[in-house]
Amino acid sequence: MHALVGENGAGKSTLMKILYGMLRPDEGTIAIEGHPAALHSPGDAIARGVGMVHQHFMLADYLTVLENIVLGAEKLHGIGAKARARVREISDAYGLRVRPDVLVEDLGVADRQRVEILKVLYRGARILILDEPTAVLVPQEVEALFDNLRDLKAEGLTVIFISHKLGEVLSVADDITVIRRGTTVASVVPAETTARHLAELMVGSELPSPQTRESTVTDIEMLRVRSLRLTATDVDGVDRAVLDGIDLTIHKGEILGIAGVEGNGQAELVEAIMGMRDPDSGQLTLGGQDISHAPTRARRESGIGYIPEDRHRHALLLDAPLWENRILGHVTEPPNSRGHFLDPGAARRDTERIVTEYDVRTPGIEVTAASLSGGNQQKLIVGREMSHLPRLLIAAHPTRGVDVGAQAQIWDQIRTARSEGLAVLLISADLDELIGLSDTLRVMYRGRLVADADPATITPQELGSAMTGAATGHLEHPTDAPGEGR
């Protein structure tokens, strides 16, 4: 199990794409099991036993899980009963809990990741490349994944994984390679280094902390959600409640954190607040104004900022230049428009400002969003949303897949805006981030808010346990006195 770490833009994903045959190197050699390997395509890599699970998944939304797994590998087990049996066999063997007949577009991020891993194993990979494999998992799921990876290793497979979670790297890797700006700067073993040392090797600074110490919570309500209910039709054609009796209030200057395993209603809650789904019943008010059935644009113009959980699907036009991406979601607002007309010149100038203020590493604003690393794409999105001085920010996994330096910058921006009165709904799979940033914590399970916790006393392990439905009500460390707020 070999870990590769480095800041965003260091070249980690580029290197892995070379090893998977997606990119051709200008020079140098690759050897697999001691033999030189010329990898001209992913097909060549797969034939040599190399499989890759990308940070941004490579799945066809409109196909089922089974169809995605079989696609391109029809010669292995056909497309019928034999293929289905093999998928179930691998899924059961590694605890992946994959449902073959579900459309991929109906899956959450964690389920998509499991499909990608199964797809690679289905093709017989002996070298498994994982790009940010734990970004969407709670602690219990992370440990289960690592147990699976250890089993794979015990069977003779090699695992190469990229991660920004340095504690996890130290706990599971046999060797660690650190790269900076496209060059190897260190090779270390976990027993001889620390997370702090790795962070310094990566970005030349200490490991950041999400800790928010001073309270800025006011008694002014910004978002109020009452008795919110939303139903959706499942794969069997049955209507079921994906949100049921949701009640929450976020005040000016408050960060409300929502903890929950992916697929328990967090995405639907965000979509209901943004106006992307119309609730069956209940009320939403923003600053005292009823927005329960207002269109998304009206909500945007009323002061809602939005950092989506999947930046490629919901936040960026990958083939468009950075300045056009700066306009997305804010077409009718200055500086992007004047009256009824777009103002490309002003949008370009403001994009230059965002690039500078948010340290977006790019050769210019005319390059496409796809040409940026994941962390720099995220900084552009955060800069865009914060530039409109929102009253409410919905931040869904705001630091997913970004390095420690970019993570610290994003945390600082959220903390600064919070101190100036911003209300934040924070959804994150990073429990340290949730506990460190939040003023108030709620736990979501099967479409309901089932528990609350004081961030000052709760531990990631206790929070992770509640996320699996093991605890409800007010969560409190048994040895601690009641928290006094933040």
Automatic annotation (TrEMBL):
InterPro entries: AAA+_ATPase (IPR003593), ABC_carbohydrate_import_ATPase (IPR050107), ABC_transporter-like_ATP-bd (IPR003439), ABC_transporter-like_CS (IPR017871), P-loop_NTPase (IPR027417). The lineage of its organism: Bacteria, Bacillati, Actinomycetota, Actinomycetes, Kitasatosporales. It holds the Pfam family ABC_tran. This is Simple sugar transport system ATP-binding protein. Keywords: ATP-binding, Nucleotide-binding, Repeat, Sugar transport, Transport. PROSITE patterns: ABC_TRANSPORTER_1, ABC_TRANSPORTER_2. Residues 1-206, 223-471 form the ABC transporter domain. The keyword DNA-binding does not apply. One of its GO terms (molecular function) is ATP binding. It comes from the Bacteria. Coiled coil: none annotated.
